[in-house]
Amino acid sequence: MSELGSRKGDHIDLAISGNVGFRKGTLLDEVQLIHCSLPELHVDKIELATDFLGCRLSAPLLIAAMTGGTERAGLLNLKLAEVAEQAGVALGLGSQRAMVKTGEVNQEIAASYRLRQVAPSIPILGNLGAVQAAEMSTSLVSEMLDAVQASALCIHLNPAQEMIQPGGDRDFRGCEDAIARLADELKLPVIAKETGCGISASVGHRLKKLGVQHVDISGGGGTSWVGVEARRAHGDKVRQGEEFWDWGIPTAASILQLAPLQFQTLIATGGIKSGLDVARALNLGANLAGIARPVLQALDAGGQEGAISFIEAVADDLRAAMLLTGSGSVKALQEKPRLIGPNLQVWKAPL
Ligand SMILES: Cc1cc2nc3c(=O)[nH]c(=O)nc-3n(C[C@H](O)[C@H](O)[C@H](O)COP(=O)(O)O)c2cc1C
């Protein structure tokens, strides 16, 4: 198997059973939603449906980018796609780097990302690292997205992971130009996405100037990608990975940083475990919440039924939180007041 393929296998194994969570939290528990004892709502009439990239999702949820590129990853992708289609939520593909490694689209590898036959109606998000995007022409990126009938391209920003990853990228110059070029020239929307370290207000401003309208802050508090790479590393990178394990901006803090910038879509991924977490993220200003590792773990433990039950429980908790705050719609929830604890309050200043 190629180095890329065996790395993906390690990532899946570590995400399922390795102890690779952040040791610090998302700070979402610092968001106190205000209880409403007089909701005047019927729980079955609460509207979770949300528009995203021209599709109507049954809840504001996304199974965040995970995998692709090998036979095992392709099977996982098919299962995740069936789950997402049945649950009516969006789906992110893992990095598509493996399918364009040779400078052209490799149709055999592309098959592991091709999911439209089982997921015809949901948004499917393509995925590429910013460093790889900088090395590719717009027409090749476009071909890569067409090959899987993607609805958008996530460009992932993951310098912390790369710093610890054996053989990871070390040169991050040229990514701004690549993002601006792709945002301008691609026919599909570009989503700038972190992978668990969050996005600050200043980076958010830079992304906006580059023409990006959609962001996934993917903040700290869930899967630690520094942690994943520390588990795979040798020698001094193990020590460095331990030292930087919790590096990043917690998910709640990153939402606070970016909410004032009024992106068209603000996705909150990173450590989202329940519908109450989703409710808090939406209330802070997100439009959608993304979940990666907990969905993979639910799929591993209980098959597709397990993953669907997990997503349904998240939607159910969200519905309960909406009723209990007196919010009939996502928009109403976003407008409700909240109390913010001191550890999150400090992140309110744009940084
Ligand atoms: C097994 C696995 C593989 C991942 N691969 C990618 C990837 O290829 N591209 C990407 O942008 N993010 C990738 N991620 C990061 C997630 O999309 C997400 O940003 C991060 O794990 C935080 O979410 P979580 O705490 O819900 O896991 C991966 C996550 C997991 C668990």
Structural features, described:
This protein is of the alpha/beta class and 351 residues long. It has one domain (3-348): Alpha-Beta Barrel (TIM Barrel). Helix content is 43%, strand content 13%. It contains 15 helices and 12 strands. The protein has an 8-stranded parallel barrel, surrounded by 5 helices. It has a two-stranded antiparallel sheet with strand order 1-12. A two-stranded antiparallel sheet has the order 2-3. Strand 10 (265-269), helix 12 and strand 11 form a beta-alpha-beta unit. Helix 1 (3-17) packs across helix 9 (225-232). It is globular and about 60 Å long. The N and C termini lie far apart (43 Å). The model has no long low-confidence stretch (mean pLDDT 97). It binds flavin mononucleotide. The site of flavin mononucleotide has 27 residues, from helix 1, strand 7 and helix 13.
